[in-house]
């Protein structure tokens, strides 16, 4: 098996007597053990009169087996064992995965293996979980992704299984006169869930032999009917579906144009990656690219190539463009430009050196591959297990085995007008059809002969050119030798007025990568909502100006980001370190020569307004979260405030604003990874010059937080344009001590499973039900939330309050072993070692921001957790969380489905947000 030289894990591939394919992974440093099982069954296999069956079955397998019959027991076990789990249903796959502390892995596998040998399909659970599937469908009924996907299904060949409705609802999963859905579930399960079409991956610190023993013990009983998957013979599209212009009405304000070309499946060419080569050129964003030209013409904001759905007998290849209002009037011209670039690739772009350049980048990425979380690792390996040959399971995603010009040319031949479906998603077009399930208005028309002729007879456009050789590809990839103090925590190696430099050489992961953070704080940047918006505008304009020249660096394995925060802006670089100084120089040059082009300003302003207005169409629970953080963090206003400020800002205000912002600033820099100290100091000089840092007298910006104080229950209603209701309750800690962090984090950990089981699985109040740990500006916070298609905020409040009133008893009923296991599960999560350089960099950077200058906050929280007794937690629930005594904010919105029900009437409504912020100290 081909593995990376940087990968210390050991692998073993085997096939069990029942034909189950298995990959075992021994990772002695894995903080948790993980398993994933995928079965080659998905919504394509749904009976035509039982659409959503595969998805429903995925839900049901979690709800009790012969050996472990109690509904909700699996969740409780996972939570107590410091783990997590999930599953998803795709077109031709259903995948289940979980991770737990290593000591609990054997029991976890015993429980998990039962899903595939002895599920109960308990009748009461069948009845309730139907509601959960229906809630999931209703939750996304106004989700544009789902609405557009449904039109996609209705406009391809109706005989192809892609055309089926994949989610299911109460009508497709109902009991009928002649049969109950439970009987059909059992029949579907026994027909399709066969070991011969399954793959299993186990990963953990256990030895390969021990993992193999688990495999035989828990998975060799899965029955196998030995049947291969039936082949799909219907093509995804026929001549009736190509050469069509499809227009779709979205709920959000978007303008997206997609050119979609269908070809046969190309899975067998995974080792050559011919479509990656084509997508790499078509999706290029550098000078002379298709994106660059269309942007200069003011037609588009973004372009992406190479997406699309795929399956065992088809592959879509798409070019997607986000249009400006001007672009909406030039659709035929945009399509012409795309075909001009395809022609350029066909005639001048087939060069082996381009293939080799892309291959060397992938080889570097593979050679210096970094660890991911156990759960993520098993999730991607299990998909590869069924798609790649055994030798390539780990390597397949990175492989580029050879340049095959004839193969690339044969695929380019599919990218032609008569094999194209052109999809426009934009408001206000003309429509004559309504899609089923999601009620999406759309229309389908044939291309006109004039369009086809214009697109077929394209000449090369001199404004378009292919990318040059990439100057950012690294050559020197051996990490620097370690210095003596490399194992120490980050050191503050410069502490000047207005400028601090933290530095640490990375000593453990030994990859030639680095991360640089530069936080620029300025009180002017955040002194009012208007200035906060100007800061965000400047960030977007700078990113826009950088994109074309920095794109080759991204291709070569480096990334950069610039984002606004509550004190100003942060610049972050990551990836291969050798050329990071070159990238930093490029970014700073762009900043120094900044110009505020009026047309780009207009487009960016329009884009930001559109994004923020679209947030008003987000699902209710997302709107409540946004409104809550806006209510409590003055430097992080909610969308309506941002929109109001942005509407009146003009481009000529920005140059003076940037000058004022940089007149008083404070910079914190952290250089980490494969960097030497002298290079970090040299970079600091470059930064100080660029930002004119000379004896600033100014410290970093304050990040204020509104304190709730002793004001009981405060309520805040927002209006959401949605059928569902939603509620969110927030509890805030006054203190930021390790003990308080421990209490709030443990409360969330203890509540989460019971809350989900009680309010979602048992009471079926909605699909989105949960608890969350929400620290704001270092103050711990606890959140309980529900979005519901069936209950109004007043009922949801009652259900949550009943839960919190009873929860102290739940804690008292735990035996000592369960209490300790829950604590240890959480401690294991907190103490988990960083998986890779990037996650460690982020953790250290958060510590710097939190003034944890000894980098031991995590250890302090663990010590505090170990000291917490059950009595402490019961006291916390009774004093802080119980509704009668709680100081909390209850955010809610009453859905259209519940408009006639009683409004929520508890606590004190927040009449004026400004007064609330002023009084809260």
UniProtKB/TrEMBL annotation:
Domain Peptidase M16 N-terminal: 21-159
UniProt keyword Zinc, yes or no: yes
Gene Ontology biological process: proteolysis
Gene Ontology MF: a single term: metal ion binding
EC identifiers of the protein: 3.4.24.55
Cited PROSITE patterns: INSULINASE (PS00143)
Domain of life: Bacteria
Gene3D superfamilies on file: Metalloenzyme, LuxS/M16 peptidase-like
Domain (Peptidase M16 C-terminal) ranges: 182-360
Record keywords, A-Z: Hydrolase, Metal-binding, Metalloprotease, Protease, Zinc
Family annotation (InterPro entries): Metalloenz_LuxS/M16, Pept_M16_N, Pept_M16_Zn_BS, Peptidase_M16, Peptidase_M16_C, Peptidase_M16_M, PqqF-like_C_4
Domain (Coenzyme PQQ synthesis protein F-like C-terminal lobe): residue spans on this chain: 746-845
Domain spans labelled Peptidase M16 middle/third: 366-644
Enzyme class: hydrolase
GO cellular component, one term: cytoplasm
Cofactor(s) in the UniProt record: Zn(2+)
Biological function: Endopeptidase that degrades small peptides of less than 7 kDa, such as glucagon and insulin.
Family: Belongs to the peptidase M16 family.
Protein known as: Protease 3
Species name: Photobacterium jeanii
